[in-house]
Specification:
alpha+beta; seven-stranded antiparallel sheet; 3 helices; 41% strand
Length: 159
């Protein structure tokens, strides 16, 4: 049985900026603590990450996995599925970014993740891990984007 997590948050940044931050996978470790190493193995015809190898901290150990990213007809959606892993049996997920204002000042971020682990874990351990993953995926993203927006606004006032 897979575990499903989803989250919705409003971020004070444009949908395009949210998409750009998430799709810049090489910089994920800058705003996601558990990601230790990222290597893009394949890029699509538009130069976007396709197959990406990760090394991450997970449940007190290091894990490696490879995801295949997909970009559909919606220009503000990114999805992925697991190709291989030493700890995970199945992992599918996506982000969608919906504008909330005409000036693109706010975005609703929708995050979905389905995971099956190779090992069985007690429910409380899975819930704690799920909470940490969702926090990194949505709350850390919001903090990073809003800090950048604030800093760029301050530098514009100084100029």
């Amino acid at each position: 049985m897979s575990d499903h997590a989803n989250q919705r948050r409003v971020i004070k940044a444009s949908p395009q900026r949210c998409f750009d931050m998430v799709s810049d996978v090489e910089k994920l470790s800058e705003w996601t603590d558990d990601i230790k190493e990222v290597k893009v193995l394949v890029r699509d015809d538009n130069g976007r990450p396709g197959d990406v190898s990760f090394r991450a901290a997970a449940m007190g150990r290091s894990t490696k996995y490879t995801l295949r990213y997909s970009y559909g007809s919606n220009p503000l959606r990114i999805s992925w599925r697991l190709i291989e892993s030493d700890l995970i049996k199945r992992m599918n997920g996506d982000y969608e970014f919906h504008p909330l204002s005409e000036d693109d000042a706010e975005t609703e971020v929708v995050y979905n993740l389905d995971v099956d682990l190779l090992v069985r874990l007690p429910g409380f351990v899975k819930r704690r891990a799920e909470s940490k993953i969702v926090h990194a995926a949505v709350d850390d993203l919001r903090e990073r984007l809003e800090a950048e927006t604030k800093n760029s606004g301050e530098s514009e006032r100084v100029s």
